[in-house]
Amino acid sequence: MTSAESVVVVAHWQTTEASVSTVRDLLGDLRTQSLAEPGCEGYEIFHHQDDPTSIVLIERYRDGDALAAHQKSDHYQDIVVAKIRPLLTERRVQILRPWKG
After folding, report:
1. How far is CA 94 from CA 5, 10, 22, 50, 57, in A?
2. Could you give the angle at the alpha carbon of 43 between the alpha carbons of 97 and 35, nearest 5°?
3. Distances (CA, A) of 72 to 42, 59, 69, 81
4. Within the chain, which residues score under 70 in pLDDT?
5. Lateral strand order in the sheet of 40-48
6. Domains and CATH numbers, the chain
7. C-beta separation of 95 from 59 below 8 A
8. What is Dmax (Cα atoms) for the chain?
9. Cα 93 from Cα 73, distance rounded (Å)
10. What is the 3-state secondary structure (H, E, C) of the chain?
11. With b meaning 16 or more CB within 10 Å and e meaning fewer, what string describes 8-26?
12. Which neighbouring-strand residues pair with 10?
């Protein structure tokens, strides 16, 4: 994905009550390391007000290259791919670009 336009990622994750505290701890570390990336412009973590196992991430990247670099980073591979994904029961990711209307 190569583009000079900014990119917003909205990730909807569902985990279990047994795993939510582990996922929350891992996300704190992931957020810190992601915000240190030169192309990461924002990284917010939310949960549904009535269901803490329903997690939403909103990430902002300078461009498509910055998102690709994030996804290839050691911390993403270690934290998300190896540790968090196995704890998720559902995962939906949307990649959004600015509206050009």
Report:
1. 16, 5, 24, 23, 10
2. 110
3. 18, 15, 5, 10
4. 1-3
5. 40-48, 51-61, 7-15, 88-96
6. 7-96 (3.30.70.100)
7. no
8. 45
9. 18
10. CCCCCCEEEEEEEEECCCCHHHHHHHHHHHHHHHHCCCCEEEEEEEEECCEEEEEEEEEEECCHHHHHHHHHCHHHHHHHHHHHHHHEEEEEEEEECCCCC
11. bbebebebeeebbeebeeb
12. 58, 94
Q: What pTM value is reported for the model?
A: 0.91
User: What distance in Å separates the CA atoms of residue 101 and residue 27, rounded to the nearest whole number?
Assistant: 35
Give me the amino acid identity at 97.
R
pLDDT per residue over 51-69, tens digit each? Answer: 999 999 999 999 999 999 9
Kindly state the tokens that stand for 84. 């968090």
- If you search the block for the tokens 């994905």, which residue do you land on? 1
**End-to-end CA distance of the chain, in Å?**
22
